[in-house]
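Record now logged for everyone:
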Amino acid sequence: MLDAATEHSIAPRLVEVPSWNPFLIKDLPVAGEPPTFSVQAELYAPSNPVCAPAIVFSQGLGGVRDPRERRYARWFAELGYVGLVIDSFKSRGTDQHPEPMRALEVSESMILSDAYAGLRYLAAHAEVNPARIYIVGFSYGGMISVLSAHEQFSRVFLPDGLRFAGHVSLYGCTVPRLENVRTSGAPVTIMQGGKDGNVDLERSREIAADLRRGGSQVNEIVFPNAFHQWDSAETKRSFVQFNIAACRMHVSADGTIRDERSGMLISGGATRTLAITMSASPRGYYMRRDDEIRRRSDDILLKALSE
């Protein structure tokens, strides 16, 4: 587990990563289309890496934070991994916007694009082992980590067959399910909190079942007493005004997206915003750090990225 000394021992290098910028799945590039966008990222590297494993860190809606994305990147750099922390929000000028606005302005398709761009970027580095590049995501990014296991998306961005070696989601949102469940076959680890009001645990189980049917081994862990973001800096329970536990989207094999409850076609920013706001609940959800649960999730994460 990461200690206080490790948290500040490795400084990142700021890099630009060629990416894509599709707002919806229907806007995805033609398979093999070169990147047309650039995202900012922080690269964490151990001393003298040789054929090192690597990790793409997909941020939560709260943005890149020291106690979360940077903490994990530093920890794994100490363990010999190259880490890439992508800032999808800052790259699109939304990092200073309220979190609900970020969710409406920067779509899952955009962040998914950045995740694949990170994989492509790391695989091109001589010191990185391209067969051992993983993705770890938090909340919004946790959803992205799961989505990136699906071949429906992977084959568009990386038709050459490059794939993540494993996927880990920490308190990831439970919004989309895919009609085409085929995966790359890489293992997926999903960690959720039993008291997390921002996710639907039954929906999470359904997503895990989809992944298994698609060809991946899935390890599901629910920490019964954990709230959302149990690895945050906040030791006191804090309240977030809205939750999206009831937000459910269906992605067809041809990339069509519909809101499951209303059947509404998601055709652009307006319909996506409407679907999210219709599903958002003012009952909100709570966040709280829990050191014991964080220790346990750290152990699970380390094991998932070591096998």
In short: Residues 6-236+288-304 form a domain with the Rossmann fold fold (CATH 3.40.50.1820). Residues 1-8 have pLDDT under 50 and may be disordered. Residues 108-123 form the longest helix (16 residues).
